[in-house]
Amino acid sequence: EPEVTQTPSHQVTQMGQEVILRCVPISNHLYFYWYRQILGQKVEFLVSFYNNEISEKSEIFDDQFSVERPDGSNFTLKIRSTKLEDSAMYFCASSETALSSEKLFFGSGTQLSVL
Amino acid sequence: GQNIDQPTEMTATEGAIVQINCTYQTSGFNGLFWYQQHAGEAPTFLSYNVLDGLEEKGRFSSFLSRSKGYSYLLLKELQMKDSASYLCAVRGSGAGSYQLTFGKGTKLSVIP
User: Fold this and answer.
1) Which parts of chain B register pLDDT below 50?
2) Closest-CA residue of chain B to A92
């Protein structure tokens, strides 16, 4: 089965530094998402992206966050100036359509640790 | 807004049947998903319900009652590999239709 791939699997950074998390969605998918999961807490929606635009974002996705599809295959999440509370597992996901029944395929995640 | 409640933990015996409940209060509803998440791994899709009733898929079944804001995931013939967290997630409607809102997940431990 096709997979969403994410790199790196682990990222350690100092508070205030910029990080870029990378994702390669499934090739024929058109809708891309970032979710995060703080340790012991629920999976939370950050942003959805379609046709090179943000289609929806949550309150968590403030000005420190940005997303980009720099080429035909990659989808990135940038955190401009990391804070301790940004430490979490970040999941990229993709789907073929935005139909309500459409399942999301999640990548295996990037564990971000901000020190 | 969305509020989704699930039990935090459950334990069941190998070979048995377990039912994991989920209740939700939402401002819009466009379907309910169940995902399985093994520790340190990505969530993987199990089921989707948008109409009332039971959807059966092998050892796993999922039920939905929209009027009660209630769903359950039924796992039959439990295997050790079913030990995982089970996440209930609701898709909103209108402005929230792209996102899934997840519950905190139910950690299921299957014991011999």
Assistant:
1) none
2) B42
